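Quick one: Serpin domain-containing protein from Bubo bubo, structure tokens please.
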Amino acid sequence: MKMKPTFSLCFLLAGLYAVAQCHQHPRYHNKHDNSKGTYYPGRSSHGEGIYPVKNKTFVKLVPSNADFAFSFYKLVASEATDENIFFSPISISASFAMLALGAKSATLMQILEGLAFNLKKTQEQEIHEGFCQLLHMLNRSDSELQLSLGNALFIEETLKPLQKFLDDVKSFYEAEVFSTDFNNSSGAENQINNYIEEKTNGKIVKLVENLDPLTAMVLVNYVFFKAHWEKPFSTSYTKQEDFFVDRKTSVKVDMMYRKGYYRNYFDEELSCWLVQIPYNGNAAALFILPDEGKMKQVEVVLLKRTVSKWEKFLQDRKIHLHIPKFSISGTYDVKRIVKQVGMIDLFTEQADLSGITEDEEGGRLLSSCWVIHRAMLNVHENGTEAVGVTVKEVTWRSGDFPHPPRVRFNRPFLLVILDKYTRTVLFIGKIVNPLKND
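--- reply ---
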């Protein structure tokens, strides 16, 4: 007879960002996903007809999601001095907000307040409705941009999830729920890894290893984003140049080059260049280049209001732009980091998650569980799909520099990728060494 598992929750987030792959991949709508185990059917995973977008509840989430994004960055940066950083704050926010559906009392309050929500201004129901709308709007795929963000729960087969919890995670968070035999660790690992590999189009493989047979639940979050630059770089201009990691260290990188019109601004107070590079579709990347020795000064004020100020000052002007090709990834112990934003009970025996399962031990989380977030970033000219693309631009515009400045990203810089329509921070990165991948 199989032993009843202790309700220790293993929480896993897998994020992926890839620019300009060579082939379009289909979005996956098959709820069974070839994953072994029982799938719990429920209501529409897209929330269609439940909370019409015309209500725009998601707008109330925008400030809090941005605050959490930059707070999380600062916590990561404080521990990862002089290292590459890359993560998806919206995927982390969505996962913890979904977990709040099964939380009660102080645990519930800690999760939502840890996500930077003011519960006097935004009700719990509005938060879930807002995420429902937001995920629905972000999940899109067309010829210009592909963005897929979702969640899945793998629950120990001997436990009985509450139907309300199953219904809520499906209707609000587009989540899939599978019954899993964690006593068969290798089988459970294969089931979860196959799911992640499929959802990230083969880019994240074998993320789960050495699962504890006493695991009761694994939450998986994935985000896949593929877009092409609105104004692609020509491979013929890419050449090897020095990238100065610090005053003593330089590395050779493939530096892309393009002369053209970009929204840009030099912040004299913070001593940094801002260049916004748009993608085809509704997304844009804000590249932030601090002057030498000014990185920490810029990081201190990397806040929602600072980015809003920058966006107001950006002007469309011609520049000589140099940006390195790079591919990096970041892996983070989210469990340790979120405790610093106030989620102190969540991964302890004091946690109240009694809204998840009927099991008498279902409200208790043990501190032995783990939380992982992995994100990957790939930046290059635009791949083979960009070959032969020509972009014509007006030769002169009002507000142009007398002589177009040369903005050369050949030292550590920051990166914020935004969905312009929903004002959502999709990814935040810091590139210290373009040649280091993780």
